[in-house]
Amino acid sequence: MTEDRSILYFAPSTCARVTLTALEEIGEPFETRLIAFMAGEHRKPEYLAINPAGKVPALQTKTGVLTQNGAILFYLAQTYPEAGLLPLSGDPQADASVLSSLFRMSADLHPLVTRFVIPGMILSDPASSAHVRAKAEEVLKLQLEPIATQLGKQPWYLGERWSILDAYLAWIWFRITGAGFDPATFPAIADHYDRASARPSARAALQTEARAQQDLTERGLAFTPPKL
Ligand SMILES: N[C@@H](CCC(=O)N[C@@H](CS)C(=O)NCC(=O)O)C(=O)O
User: Domain range for residue 169?
Assistant: First the structure.
């Protein structure tokens, strides 16, 4: 690691995009390490020493390794308050409310994304996995409905100002619509996705991912959904 530079362990199209976008938004130099799922790199001892859960993202900072998007984003928001990733104020009630929104993304919505996009990770036989996906779609609609209503009244998830929660929601939308969720179901979220994706930080993150994807393709390791 170049002294003082953080290292992000990531893979293209994954939820590591949210942390990648946060790092781009901060604007400090950082390094990336591509984890090739198809080569099983996330299960190898070298990576398990960084994240024993074998998942991306992981962020190596000057002071240690952090895993879990929510924790990494909370750390980055506190360390670089000028980047405006999260509106943390030091008030326990207000900050817990911001964390609640973060958990809504990582603990409520992300598991539904997995069930909708890769239902075979939950139940592998085709009939059961179709049921998992159908149920996930139903619950996703239920969970996204209030967010769509909110975005009909305000430009960003938390109100008038962009936050990293908007990048999180955009990633969720990218994953589910990329797997067949009809974007016309929630036009306000589709519109939010377009605006969130147009930010320079989001575009820079996508460029990094595109280079990584190219690298994987050249090595014959382009990602296909994991099976249990
Ligand atoms: N709760 C974790 C979820 C991380 C996660 O599930 N990452 C996925 C990519 S989106 C992954 O690395 N999957 C590989 C695997 O589970 O084998 C977080 O928010 O960081």
Answer: 92-199
The per-residue pLDDT for range 37-75, each reduced to its tens digit, is 999 999 999 999 999 999 999 999 999 999 999 999 999
Atom of ligand 1 nearest to the CA of 107: 1
- Cα of 189 from ligand 1 centre, angstroms: 23
| Residue 186: Cβ-neighbour burial (10 angstroms; 0-12, 13-18, 19+) | buried
**Nearest CA, atom 11, ligand 1:** 55
| 47 & 100 share domain | no
Q: Is the backbone peptide bond immediately before 187 cis, with ω within 30 degrees of 0? A: no
Ligand 1 pocket: which of 9, 20, 21, 56 to mutate (most atoms within 8 A of CB): 56
Look at the chain and report how many structural domains it folds into: 2
Query: How far is residue 134 CA from its own chain's centroid?
Result: 22
